[in-house]
Amino acid sequence: MSTVRDDNFSQPDIDKFDELAHRWWDPSGPQKALHAMNPPRLAYVSQRIALRGARVLDVGCGGGLLSEALALAGADVTAIDLAPELLKIAGLHRLESGVQVDYRRSSIEAMAASGEAPFDAITCMELLEHVPDPAAVIAACAGLLKPGGRLFVSTLNRTPAAFALAIVGAEYIARLLPRGTHEYRDFIKPSELAAWLREAGLELEDVSGLVYEPWRNAARISSRTDVNYLACALKPA
């Protein structure tokens, strides 16, 4: 089993995302696909847990797109990231929107080791493919969940289709993302994710595809999991 670590991050990836911070909330900017995926991601979570009054942790929150959406749905949201410029943008947007989110600069491993009270739900979206040891992130998340709580994850499958669409298509042809945003070797097969969840004492409840359609700049939940996918896991009571 992976042990808790405090160095589980990629500084080049943090730097890349910090460079995008100033346009994070621009729905037509470099993160427009993320904006399109936010509503179905929120729907996926809200269909599986009652968000009103729930204590929710958003891990790898970036500029706060999902964090604010969870808070608007009634959750008490704590959000963490290691990218200082992104957290600055998240804080500034919170001032504009008035949506209450507790943003903190922390890794999930550091938070798990700090004695933080457990959460009803944890979201970890588009993060696992950017860290050296994704299993350690899963383990730390499991440690911060209440019994009966759920972990929600989204990531990219390691398939030829994901390489073609998420790297070649999105980064080189359509230029939806800066080149070098993703490394194919870091994509994660659902079977690998399932093994890490079991190792952390969590029960996988669902795996669903998340399909982004650039021609209409929209996304939807699907049975197709060969590119982006979402997963939900339960911490047994």
Give the SSE layout.
Elements: H1 11-19, H2 32-46, E1 55-59, H3 65-72, E2 76-81, H4 84-97, E3 102-105, H5 108-113, E4 119-125, H6 134-143, E5 145-156, H7 160-173, H8 190-199, E6 203-213, E7 218-222, E8 228-234
Parallel strand pairs: 1-2, 1-4, 2-3, 4-5
Antiparallel strand pairs: 5-8, 6-7, 6-8
Helix pairs in contact: 2-3, 6-8
Task: Give a brief rundown of this model.
By secondary structure, this protein is of the alpha/beta class. The chain contains 8 helices and 8 strands. The protein has helices at 11-19, 32-46, 65-72, 84-97, 108-113, 134-143, 160-173, 190-199, and strands spanning 55-59, 76-81, 102-105, 119-125, 145-156, 203-213, 218-222, 228-234.
Question: What does this molecule look like?
Answer:
There is one protein chain. With about 240 residues, the chain is of the alpha/beta class. Helices cover about 35% and strands about 25% of the residues. The chain has an eight-stranded mixed β-sheet with strand order 3-2-1-4-5-8-6-7. α6 links the parallel β4 and β5. α2 packs parallel to α3 and α6 packs across α8. The protein is globular, with a radius of gyration of 16 Å. The two termini are about 20 Å apart.
